[in-house]
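User: Modeling request: complex.
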Amino acid sequence: GAGVSQSPSNKVTEKGKDVELRCDPISGHTALYWYRQSLGQGLEFLIYFQGNSAPDKSGLPSDRFSAERTGGSVSTLTIQRTQQEDSAVYLCASSPMGRSSTDTQYFGPGTRLTVL
Amino acid sequence: LAKTTQPISMDSYEGQEVNITCSHNNIATNDYITWYQQFPSQGPRFIIQGYKTKVTNEVASLFIPADRKSSTLSLPRVSLSDTAVYYCLVAANQGGKLIFGQGTELSVKP
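Assistant: Request completed. Predicted assembly structure:
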C-alpha cells in the first residue's frame, strides 16, 4: 500500500520568505509527527498530532513554526520568515495509534529545505 | 526519559555478522527498545522492537539481557546495502514523539 508522502521533495527559498511543507500520512493512521534533521545531525522532534486531541507542540523551535492537520489526514508545516538555520530535511511520520511505546512510526522521504 | 548510548560508527565487510550494542541504564519498567534504520536521503525505517530476551525477524535479531540495561542489534551476513545509520530508542513513544540519539553509522565494505 501507499506509504507516507511528502511534498515538495526539495525547496529552495530566500531568507525571510514563508514556506509550506505538506505531508500525506498512511490512510487510517491516527497519529502524525513532524521531525527535523539538520546536516549530519540526528532527528529532532517538532510536533505531534493524535486524533482530535490538541497537538503536542513542545518541539517547535520558535513561533515562526506552525503546523495544522486538516480532517485528521493531511498536514502542513509552515515556517514563516525563514532563516538560514532552518535549512534541514523535514520528515513526516504517521502511526496507527500513537501514545503507545509499541506503535511503529512510518516515515516519509522528507522535504529538503534550503534557505539562501 | 532513558538516555541511550551507542557507538558513533562501525565498519564491517560483506558477509560478516554485525552487532551494535546500545546502553540504556535508566530504562523504565514499561519501556520497550526499538531500532530504526536510516539510509541516506531517506526517512528512518523500523527494524525491530523488543522488551526482553530475544526477538528475531526477517531482518535482524535483538538481544536484551535480563537487566535490560543494554541491547544488541544483530545483523546477519551484512551486504553493502546494509550501510546506513542505526538508531536505538528506548521509551519510543514519549506521548507520541520519538527521541532519537546520534545513531551508529554502519559502513559495509566489499
